[in-house]
Specification:
This protein has about 260 residues and is mainly beta. The chain is about 5% helix and about 50% strand. It contains three helices and twelve strands; from the N terminus they run βαββαββββββαβββ.
Length: about 260
Amino acid sequence: IRIGQVAGVDEFGAQPYGGYFVNNQLGYATNLEFNSSIPFNAGAQPGVIFEVGRQEGLYAKAGLFSGKPDPFNNDKHGVDFDIEDDSTVYAAEVGYRFGGDLPGDIRIGGHYNDGTFTRIDTGAEVDDNYVVYAMANKTVWQDPTDKKRGIDLGISAFFAPTSRNATSSEILVSAAYRGIIPCRPDDFLSFGFVRNDFGDEASDASRAPGFGSLGEEYVLELSYKYQVTPAFAIQPDIQYILNPSGTSRSDVFVAGFRTSINF
């Protein structure tokens, strides 16, 4: 049992391999694309989580959280332990954890918010919103002589009602090769793929003011993390976005890098 100011998405919907990537879609899809308002890291809210099971094998867990659409405006300093009166987020997940030399997990779960939401196409207020997900993550190879080296694969799918969420479904695929250069076991090469589908209501809302229909958006990311010292790393990153926001506008190329310091 955990109770306090908690980030619910860390327990219900976060990608285990999301840290390999710069694009947060590959880590926190349930917050970025779907409107269930489950608390997130840096915007934690009062909540409680119950879990039964073991570190290996079958497990089940459930959560109850205060649902605030914009927690930062309601809590500028992160110390407000207020319970929102008109919105509660419920979450549940069941799964199976694999142990041994090739760890991984399979899980299904979802969030449900009993608050009031706005229809994307008409602007009318409607009750409730939810998102459901399924994930599979696995280390498929590990160097028997160096546990730091290995290959991790993951796939996730999310689904939500199209009337309340611009993105009706999303599929994520991730792959990471840890220690792809044998003499550098702390480095990794990662590749991520995202496919977003926009619902009929979002497409109707786009056509109403004279814009075109919405289709699918695709995101590709390739990244390499170079561990300069045990405490300092540099991660160059490139991303390519096809059909941005589901439109036929020009594709987008993004290049950058991330640095990290471990104290």
